[in-house]
Specification:
406 residues; alpha/beta; 5-stranded mixed beta sheet; 17 strands; elongated; 4Fe-4S; 4-hydroxy-3-methylbut-2-enyl-diphosphate synthase activity (flavodoxin); IspG_bac
Length: 406
């Protein structure tokens, strides 16, 4: 699946980032700091941006949070960070944007949930206010429908219509249709109010993998708006990673999706940047984009009773990712490099030859030597207690000699 094979959608400019219209799929994330904690929010945004998040969303839920937004953006600019900041609004966004024009101007995009913009008679005028502010400040809007906060008026209407059918549909089908219709009808209303089509991004998030795939397939077939993908409430650890990868992988392989977020529940003490790394790795392993040199390593078996190759693979992978913020501006194309760290003679030499640079460490009972291959040719055989440090140096030397400086 090449970039040219993706479904062509409207291109939306979010700050300095292009979303849709054939542009590379964009990685985004969201802070979990209290937005009123300006220093803490700035720190986390910088961490997310450094890790590779190209858009960062923050919660704007109170007057104090709205007041903090311009200061957050100013401090980021002072630190040399130009990552676009998105305002996440629920329930009271119309009031906050009206009362705090500096907040409205500082944000690069607004996120509106049709189910949380207002209830009953208040819904339409409050939605209208949000769109009018977007038009006034020339900001794009993500109309983000969530299964957990679905617009009940749309669902009720469809349920009433369903009861009149000779063969009523199942509730799950009605719910899927309500999610898609909520997004499409809100987008149509936004256009009626003057928001250009290339200022609209849609998303329809739920936490069930198969349902999410079905919803986005339907949504993509019925519009050409730019689409934001994400499995909401994906969960923690391997469960969240696997569920998000399964859902988004299927959709992106079908050409659906212009920007993604991996909604991982952070493990205690874990960095918020994990969701950014997972998003990048999904895109890179599927061949859509390259972000950092990839490490190929075997899983280990009875031949690899030592954990030496595991430690080396981890060290090299960490080193490569940590260096990328510097390397991306220094070495053109280094993000496409592959490094192999293999644990025994079975597949070690072959995989090492196929990588740009690779090492085949000795397995249990094998000769205590480690041949190194560069571009398919054995260049040196490492021995002794300093194999890891010497291979580390060889990787750095390979990068310096094979990737041109900008």
């Amino acid at each position: 699946m090449s970039i040219s094979s993706r479904k062509q959608t409207q291109q939306v400019l979010v700050g300095n980032i292009k979303v849709g219209g054939g542009a590379p799929i964009v990685v985004q994330s969201m802070t979990n700091t209290d937005t009123t904690d300006v220093a803490g929010s700035v720190k986390q945004i910088m961490e997310l941006s450094t890790a590779g998040s190209e858009l960062v969303r923050i919660t704007v839920n109170t007057e104090e949070a709205a007041k903090a937004v311009p200061e957050i953006v100013n401090r980021l600019e002072q630190q040399g960070f130009s990552v676009p900041i998105i305002g996440d609004f629920h329930f009271n966004g119309h009031k906050l944007l009206e009362k705090y024009p500096e907040c409205a101007q500082a944000l690069a995009k607004y996120r509106i949930n049709p189910g949380n913009v207002g209830k009953g008679k208040a819904r339409d005028p409050q939605f209208q206010q949000m769109i009018e502010f977007a038009c006034r400040y020339d900001k794009p809007v993500r109309i983000g429908v969530n299964g957990g906060s679905l617009d009940q008026a749309v669902l009720t209407r469809l349920l009433d219509e369903n009861r009149l059918l000779a063969t009523p549909k199942e509730l799950a089908a009605i719910t899927r249709e309500a999610i898609v219709l909520s997004a499409l009808e809100s987008a149509a209303k936004a256009e009626e109010l003057g928001l250009a089509k290339n200022k609209i991004i849609l998303s329809c998030k739920i936490s069930n993998v198969q349902e999410l795939i079905s919803i986005y397939q339907d949504l993509a077939s019925r519009c050409d708006y730019a689409l934001h993908l994400g499995l909401t409430e994906a969960g923690m650890g391997s469960k969240g990673i696997v569920a998000s990868s399964a859902a988004l992988g299927v959709l992106m392989q079908q050409g659906i999706g212009d920007t993604i977020r991996i909604s991982l529940t952070p493990e205690p003490g874990a960095a918020r940047t994990k969701e950014v790394i997972v998003a990048q790795e999904i895109l890179q392993t599927m061949g859509f984009r390259s972000f950092t040199p990839m490490v190929i390593a075997c899983p280990g078996c009875g031949r690899t009773t030592s954990d030496y190759f595991q430690k080396l693979a981890q060290e090299i992978q960490t080193f490569l990712r940590e260096q990328m913020p510097t390397w991306k501006n220094k070495y053109k194309g280094v993000e496409n490099m592959e490094v192999a760290v293999m644990g025994c003679v079975v597949n070690g030499p072959g995989e090492s030859k196929n990588a740009n640079i690779g090492i085949s460490l000795p397995g249990t009972g094998e000769s205590p030597v480690a041949p190194v291959f560069e571009d398919g040719v054995k260049t040196v055989t490492l021995k002794g207690d300093n194999i890891a440090a010497e291979f580390h140096q060889l990787v750095e030397r390979y990068i310096e000699s094979h990737y041109s400086a900008e």
